[in-house]
Amino acid sequence: MDDNQAGSPTDPDPGFSAVGPPGAAAGVPDERWHAPASFGESGRGSRLLGGGWQPPGSFSRSRRGAGLLGGGRSGPVISTVSTLVVLGALVAIFLLAPGARAVEHAFFSPQHMWQAFIGDPRQGYYSVGAAIWLNIKMFIVAEILILLLALLIALVRQSAHPALFPIRILATGYVDLFRGVPLILVIFAIGLGVPALGLPVASSQSNAVYGVTALVLSYSAYVSEVYRAGLNSVHQSQVAAARYVILPQAVRNIVPPLLNDFISLQKDTALVGVLGTIEANKAAEIYSEQVFNFSSFTVAAILFLILTIPLARFTDHLIERDRRRRLAGATP
């Protein structure tokens, strides 16, 4: 082959040869070259697989690109300094405000925070630290019931059987109703309406039971739509190949959204206190009314943060792991 024909259209890759270096055909020896052991180790293979040599001026290898993407050795230092600057600015704004001392005493008094945490029934207020356990119990019970009821609603709405058409209509109306009505109104309707009915068993339950019922009714409408999104995300080829694996795949896809909903559920258990249930928020409210100090609400907020932040970080971990898994599956 002549040199002027090296780049002809009939040669798919003039720079790639399976038996020698690019210049071997022209009689130019290259002692540095050796035959690649596999396609993945060859020059062309490494380029296709994302490795190999890159031009010196490429964005990913340039210092400017690393600086724009936050990489380099100075990245952690810059992050630390910027974080300290932002936090310092916020603290300075608070401390320099005219009413900083009054707010500090009203919301961040160490003495009142400790008294609210341990409680003193003889003084007329309850322990916020003990009341948070009721929030945890309501959260666990409501979460289990929501998962079951929402899955049933989602399966009914996804069914195409003609005999289930009336049930599908009811399920759709249920979702529209409880997604449209604010949760606080649902709690009032269940907590005040059901006892007034005078039913033998249903009308004699505790306020905590009515609160959990309202949470289940409201959140099941939202979670059922999350289930439906997961079911619809399964590829049709997999649906046709094996119907019995649809649900596990759908659940795997919706774990992060479900956890986000349950983070909100943990916080919304505080709304049950409007019925008179002594949970953490209600105990903090009673303390503030007794001593005219709001530090008890700070204690309740800290306890809820202790509960929700680990779950939020676990959700972020699952989202990142799912992203890496999808990227690994998409790599040729």
The gist of it:
The chain has three domains: 1-53, no CATH class; 75-107; 110-330, Orthogonal Bundle (MetI-like fold), CATH 1.10.3720.10. It has 13 helices and no strands.
Notes on the protein architecture:
With 332 residues, the protein is mostly helical. The chain folds into three domains: 1-53, no CATH class; 75-107; 110-330, MetI-like fold (Orthogonal Bundle). 65% of the residues lie in helices and 0% in strands. The protein contains 13 helices and no strands. The protein has helices at 43-48, 63-68, 75-96, 100-107, 110-118, 128-158, 165-180, 183-197, 207-233, 236-241, 246-268, 280-291, 295-330. α7 packs across α9 (207-233). The longest helix has 36 residues, at 295-330. It is flat, with a radius of gyration of 31 Å.
What is the number of domains?
Answer: 3
- CATH topology value of the largest domain: MetI-like fold
The helix-and-strand class reads mainly alpha
Residues in helices, as a percent range? 55-70%
Q: Rough shape?
A: flat
Count of individual helical segments: 13
Major sheet attributes: none
Determine the strand fraction and express it as a percent band: under 5%
Mean pLDDT figure: 80
CATH architecture of the largest domain: Orthogonal Bundle
One letter per element, helices H and strands E, the order comes to HHHHHHHHHHHHH
User: Poorly predicted ranges (pLDDT <50, ≥5 residues)?
Assistant: 1-28, 30-62, 64-69
CATH superfamily of the largest domain: MetI-like
Number of strands: 0
- Can you identify the CATH class of the largest domain? Mainly Alpha
User: What radius of gyration results from the CA coordinates?
Assistant: 31 Å
Q: Give the termini separation.
A: 33 Å
